[in-house]
Amino acid sequence: MSCPFMNKKCGKISEDNKEENWLTYGRYLHLDKILGSQQCQSANAENGTIVHDEMLFVITHQAFELWFKQILFEMKSISEIFRVERIEERNMLLVISRLNRIIEIVKLLNSQFSVLETMTAREFYDFRSYLQDASGFQSLQFRLIEIRLGVNEETRILPKGKHYAESFIAEDKKELEVAHEDSSLFDLVNKWLERTPGTESDGFNFFGKFRSTVGSMVEAMRVEANECKDTTRKPSLLQTHESTKKLFSSVLDEDEYNKARRRHDRRLTYKAMQGALMIFTYNEEPRFHVPYQILQTLMDLDSHFSKFRFNHACMVQKMIGSSSGTYGSSGYQYLRSTCGDRYKVFVDFSKLSSYLIPRERIPPLTKLIEKSLLIHDFETSSFDSNYVSNCSLNFLSRCRTSF
Question: Cα separation of 229 and 247, whole Å?
């Protein structure tokens, strides 16, 4: 049996079979350009000898940048899916697949730090001066990833009191400006959540039911505390009642919620928060399985980027201690300060876990919302005519375009 790959069409290396026209492995990957781009600055010293560990430093950071390019490529495709008003189910699954791919890439990037750490602080010191002002702080692609994800510009750390854009040349600044003008992934997810079916005040009105349920739950806690005869247990019950009441008021009271947004303690709009909370509450409903996975995956993405920042900070501390970075930042101290929640994009989803209510208190879904949630891509005409005549066509239309 002949090789199926060596047929007439694909067996030819080139149309004219000339060696200079062969599409070889190296030519396909442009390996001559990639492998020829490791230019160690120490080679330009008077003795012309490359400091051995500079090659490792260069290759590792070039590998970082190649993977950053792939992350940006995946993020662009994900954002394009979220731009449409109604996202088809198969595209939602594609979003999860590509988000998971980004997560795996970030995991790989985290593992690369262990390779760099085979270089000692002394070995790094031997060529550090050749870097001059060059610094990972100036990674254009990493800054673009932050912007495309939606890192809050208002809560960034300003090393030396200057915005990070000041460290870039004019051409790169322009690219950063263009990225800022576009909607970030956070912006697109926020708008998507605002369209969550069941949050409409004139429909299922999830948040109205949630508010009523929480009110009943808090009142039951108050009654239990007041009727408790155990003097040692009663103070604890009263404290639990007050803390629970205060906790839920931060989301039930729109004014309080918006105050938290102004303090940068919350980022989702009030409407988007309601949509996310509904997805968390009814995540076992078939229609919310995939949206719930998306929110979980976005939280995982945040976590892995935080690990990346932390691993980077720890490596820098080992290499330069408390010295300043090559660009002039405080080095480890600056990097350590970027590991907190202020650089997380989807931290609001994690905070929503505080507002889950007992399963037995979850407001039951109506027959209408149950039926609409069970149907992923439906047309009004697919419903039984008698059923449609008794339902709000306006509500059905919103459900159809929500996700």
Answer: 26
